[in-house]
Amino acid sequence: MTERAGPHDLARVVINHGPTLMLETSQGDRYFAQSRRVTPPPVTGDQVQFVDLGGGQARIERVLPRLSVFCRLEGRHQRRVVAANIDQILLVFAASPQPESDLMDRYLIAAQLLGLRPLLLMNKADLGDVECEAAEALLREYLALGYPGLRISATTGQGFDALRRRLNGAASLLVGQSGVGKSALTNALIPGAANRVGALSDALGTGRHTTTHTRWHPLPGDSALLDAPGVRDFKLWALTPRELMQGFPEFSALKPCRFADCLHQHEPDCAVRQALDNGGIPARRYQHYQRLLAQMQQTPAWRRRP
């Protein structure tokens, strides 16, 4: 196959479908490439240098340095990068399906540890007060902890002006449970997104109506929106004690415990447990911390590092 030295030697990975990648240049030209024997393995959001092989095929020469990554646990202990070069996590939840607070906590812990800005989006806010009661209570809990959040509706456009301001100049990754309306939100924010997704899916031979791989959608103003698949579970990779506690910023806002290595269990003069007894931190969050603590204590990272 003859190589072509064209003007497009830089492109973005817009879909990572196993070993097959779709690249898109700033001019909108698309190419297929293989991820085999490329280090690090390219993921959605990566910028790559490539060689045009003709016929819509390309060979990736190298992955440009990443400004940030988003990771998840794969297998028992393996940390896997699933998206690159993002600035913020848009954590979508709704009145229906019932919000999974532990899942939301884990996403927020990951964002904290990876240096990504979180933004909570309570979708379907146009539903009645009774339907939204549980989701509204959870949003108020997170807002009280200092997390930013918006009440939005992909159906009516409620909250979209504030959301668009938050999206400006940033690459934003949509995450959350299946059924919370991430695809509807993408279509409402990006006119023609459904057609774009269909075209990309047809080109890759994947399903048109279900998001199975993270996709990169460019937005005006040097912005982008990435829609990730709905998940039944999102698990954290192995964390050290210090890393796990960093994921609960309400702990670090308290006065120091007596012992620097306090795990906030049964140690004397523990500021976290005192705050729990006084209602200063949510009992639900503390209980989830204890469950994660028990899980992490079984990992090699916990035994090796402080």
TrEMBL record:
<dbReference type="Pfam" id="PF03193">
    <property type="entry name" value="RsgA_GTPase"/>
</dbReference>
<dbReference type="InterPro" id="IPR030378">
    <property type="entry name" value="G_CP_dom"/>
</dbReference>
<feature type="binding site">
    <location>
        <position position="257"/>
    </location>
    <ligand>
        <name>Zn(2+)</name>
    </ligand>
</feature>
<dbReference type="GO" id="GO:0003924">
    <property type="term" value="F:GTPase activity"/>
</dbReference>
<keyword id="KW-0862">Zinc</keyword>
<keyword id="KW-0547">Nucleotide-binding</keyword>
<feature type="binding site">
    <location>
        <position position="264"/>
    </location>
    <ligand>
        <name>Zn(2+)</name>
    </ligand>
</feature>
<keyword id="KW-0699">rRNA-binding</keyword>
<dbReference type="InterPro" id="IPR027417">
    <property type="entry name" value="P-loop_NTPase"/>
</dbReference>
<dbReference type="GO" id="GO:0005737">
    <property type="term" value="C:cytoplasm"/>
</dbReference>
<feature type="binding site">
    <location>
        <position position="270"/>
    </location>
    <ligand>
        <name>Zn(2+)</name>
    </ligand>
</feature>
<feature type="domain" description="CP-type G">
    <location>
        <begin position="75"/>
        <end position="234"/>
    </location>
</feature>
<dbReference type="InterPro" id="IPR012340">
    <property type="entry name" value="NA-bd_OB-fold"/>
</dbReference>
<keyword id="KW-0479">Metal-binding</keyword>
<keyword id="KW-0342">GTP-binding</keyword>
<dbReference type="GO" id="GO:0046872">
    <property type="term" value="F:metal ion binding"/>
</dbReference>
<keyword id="KW-0963">Cytoplasm</keyword>
<dbReference type="GO" id="GO:0005525">
    <property type="term" value="F:GTP binding"/>
</dbReference>
<comment type="similarity">
    <text>Belongs to the TRAFAC class YlqF/YawG GTPase family. RsgA subfamily.</text>
</comment>
<dbReference type="InterPro" id="IPR010914">
    <property type="entry name" value="RsgA_GTPase_dom"/>
</dbReference>
<dbReference type="GO" id="GO:0042274">
    <property type="term" value="P:ribosomal small subunit biogenesis"/>
</dbReference>
<protein>
    <recommendedName>
        <fullName>Small ribosomal subunit biogenesis GTPase RsgA</fullName>
        <ecNumber>3.6.1.-</ecNumber>
    </recommendedName>
</protein>
<keyword id="KW-0690">Ribosome biogenesis</keyword>
<feature type="binding site">
    <location>
        <begin position="123"/>
        <end position="126"/>
    </location>
    <ligand>
        <name>GTP</name>
    </ligand>
</feature>
<feature type="binding site">
    <location>
        <position position="262"/>
    </location>
    <ligand>
        <name>Zn(2+)</name>
    </ligand>
</feature>
<dbReference type="InterPro" id="IPR004881">
    <property type="entry name" value="Ribosome_biogen_GTPase_RsgA"/>
</dbReference>
<feature type="domain" description="EngC GTPase">
    <location>
        <begin position="84"/>
        <end position="232"/>
    </location>
</feature>
<keyword id="KW-0378">Hydrolase</keyword>
<keyword id="KW-0694">RNA-binding</keyword>
<comment type="function">
    <text>One of several proteins that assist in the late maturation steps of the functional core of the 30S ribosomal subunit. Helps release RbfA from mature subunits. May play a role in the assembly of ribosomal proteins into the subunit. Circularly permuted GTPase that catalyzes slow GTP hydrolysis, GTPase activity is stimulated by the 30S ribosomal subunit.</text>
</comment>
<comment type="subunit">
    <text>Monomer. Associates with 30S ribosomal subunit, binds 16S rRNA.</text>
</comment>
<dbReference type="GO" id="GO:0019843">
    <property type="term" value="F:rRNA binding"/>
</dbReference>
